[in-house]
């Protein structure tokens, strides 16, 4: 209870999420470790209130991503329970974990009066929803990390790979590191990381010298790492993976005499999903994360309520409801102008803002791997960022300034980079 009081005061003092009057009835009840909506308005109808916002929430409640979707739904109900706002109405629609399902869900939400759409989760779902939302001029705040599907009117509140890479390279550059090698899975996500690393390294005066691609289904990365480690022209290695693949790659680099302090290992927020306290090779390795000091409240309450640790994406679902409450609390209803306001917002993931390009920016801290667990070595700061992923046109980067590619043909990589 004391934690809840502290975070409530926190939001009020910042004044970023507004102060809405509390409703008399509790609209959320807990049943069998799930929140159920109680429609008290159907029993005791209330007049439409000035400033009320109807929000359509598109989540994969069935299909391949349903477990994540249901957890995100729980986090959103938790946010509603904390806000207790009578200006915010959320209605949930199942995308069925597919592009067509998301398109139909978006159309239904718009037909039923949604003024703002939260979700969907996956890139293909966002593509489907955008087909309907753009033509109807209804803004979408999704959770995707695929920058290709984002544009004006189709935004993401998710933690994009580009901003993580940018933060990590900025940190390494600040520590005097000059040359970077990158290891990524041979996927679109991996290619997005490569694109971000090329642009960020140029902006931060580092040189991206080598990029290695691997098949995520493989378990033996020895030949790839051996090739990259011969003539090691780098003092930093970024491994964009987690779990056993991360541990295996780090071990093989060490076997090839690529170790700290000569080489600094870095990762993405995916590292936080792996217990690295016993991985001595990765001690002193760093990775970017949203501020955990803000997220402690959310994590504790979610675990207490549902009996399990929340996945990191759930906190973004929570913050999206807080973001919608800002829109509901404004007199004017230029929703896109509110969403992309320069001052940004603060939620359980710390400071963030939605960029007019559709991308998001989060103020990230850098975390170091130690035997006692991760520790913050560079704090997140609540300031504006000039980071926009498309700021440098990769097509005009001189060929000699591009890295050498391993595990994938240069022509194939460059074709993708130039067209995405």
Give a brief outline of the structure.
The chain is α/β, with parallel strands linked by helices and 420 residues long. It has 13 helices and 18 strands.
Core attributes:
2 domains, alpha/beta, disordered N terminus, Rossmann fold, 5-stranded parallel β-sheet, about 425 residues
Can you tell me about this structure?
This protein is α/β, with parallel strands linked by helices. The protein folds into two domains: 2-159 and 292-358, 3-Layer(aba) Sandwich (Rossmann fold); 161-289 and 364-419, 3-Layer(aba) Sandwich (Rossmann fold). 38% of the residues lie in helices and 19% in strands. The chain is built from 13 helices and 18 strands. The chain has helices at residues 2-14, 40-43, 66-83, 99-111, 123-136, 161-174, 188-203, 222-229, 243-255, 292-306, 312-329, 335-339, 410-419, and strands spanning 28-31, 34-37, 53-59, 88-94, 116-118, 140-142, 154-156, 179-185, 207-214, 236-239, 264-266, 286-289, 345-347, 350-354, 360-362, 365-368, 375-378, 404-406. The strands form five sheets. Strands 4-3-5-6-7 form a five-stranded parallel sheet. Strands 11-10-8-9-18 form a five-stranded parallel sheet, sandwiched between helices. The protein has a three-stranded antiparallel sheet with strand order 12-16-17, with helices on one face. Strand 1 (28-31) and strand 2 form a beta hairpin. Helix 3 (66-83) crosses helix 11, helix 4 (99-111) packs parallel to helix 5 (123-136) and helix 6 runs parallel beside helix 7. It is globular and about 65 Å long. It starts with a helix and ends with a helix. The model is unreliable at 1-47 and 386-390 (pLDDT under 50).
């Amino acid at each position: 209870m004391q934690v809840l009081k502290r975070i409530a005061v926190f939001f009020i003092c910042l004044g970023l999420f507004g102060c809405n009057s509390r409703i008399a009835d509790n609209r959320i009840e807990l049943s069998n470790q799930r929140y159920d909506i109680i429609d008290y308005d159907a029993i005791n109808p209330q007049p439409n209130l000035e400033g009320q916002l109807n929000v359509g929430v598109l989540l994969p409640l069935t299909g391949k991503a349903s477990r994540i979707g249901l957890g995100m739904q729980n986090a959103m109900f938790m946010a509603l329970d904390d806000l207790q706002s009578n200006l915010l109405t959320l209605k949930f629609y199942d995308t069925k974990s597919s592009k067509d399902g998301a398109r139909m869900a978006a159309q239904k939400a718009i037909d039923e009066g949604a003024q703002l759409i939260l979700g969907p989760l996956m890139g293909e779902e966002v593509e489907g929803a955008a087909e309907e939302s753009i033509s109807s001029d209804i803004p979408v705040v999704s959770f995707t990390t695929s920058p290709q599907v984002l544009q004006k009117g189709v935004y993401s509140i998710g933690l994009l790979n580009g901003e993580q890479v940018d933060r990590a390279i900025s940190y390494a550059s600040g520590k005097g590191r000059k040359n970077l090698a990158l290891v990524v899975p041979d996927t679109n996500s991996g290619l997005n990381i490569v694109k971000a690393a090329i642009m960020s390294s140029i902006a931060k005066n580092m040189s991206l010298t080598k990029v290695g691609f691997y098949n995520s289904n493989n378990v033996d990365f020895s030949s790839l790492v051996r090739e990259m480690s011969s003539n090691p022209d780098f003092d930093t290695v970024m491994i964009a993976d987690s779990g056993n693949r991360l541990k295996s790659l780090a071990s093989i680099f060490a076997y090839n005499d690529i170790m700290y302090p000569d080489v600094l290992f870095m990762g993405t927020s995916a590292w936080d999903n792996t217990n690295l306290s016993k991985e001595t090779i990765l001690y002193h390795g760093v990775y970017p994360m949203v501020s955990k000091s803000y997220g402690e409240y959310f994590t504790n309450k979610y675990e207490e309520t549902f009996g399990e640790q929340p996945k990191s994406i759930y906190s973004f679902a929570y913050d999206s409801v807080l973001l919608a409450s800002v829109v509901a609390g404004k007199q004017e209803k230029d929703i896109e102008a509110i969403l992309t306001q320069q001052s940004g917002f603060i939620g359980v993931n710390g400071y963030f803002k939605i960029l007019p390009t559709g991308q998001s920016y989060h103020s990230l801290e850098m975390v170091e791997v130690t035997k006692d667990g991760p520790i913050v070595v560079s704090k997140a700061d609540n300031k504006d960022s000039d980071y926009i992923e498309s700021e440098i046109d990769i097509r005009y980067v001189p060929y000699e300034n591009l890295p050498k590619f391993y595990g994938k043909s240069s022509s194939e990589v460059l074709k993708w980079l130039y067209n995405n």
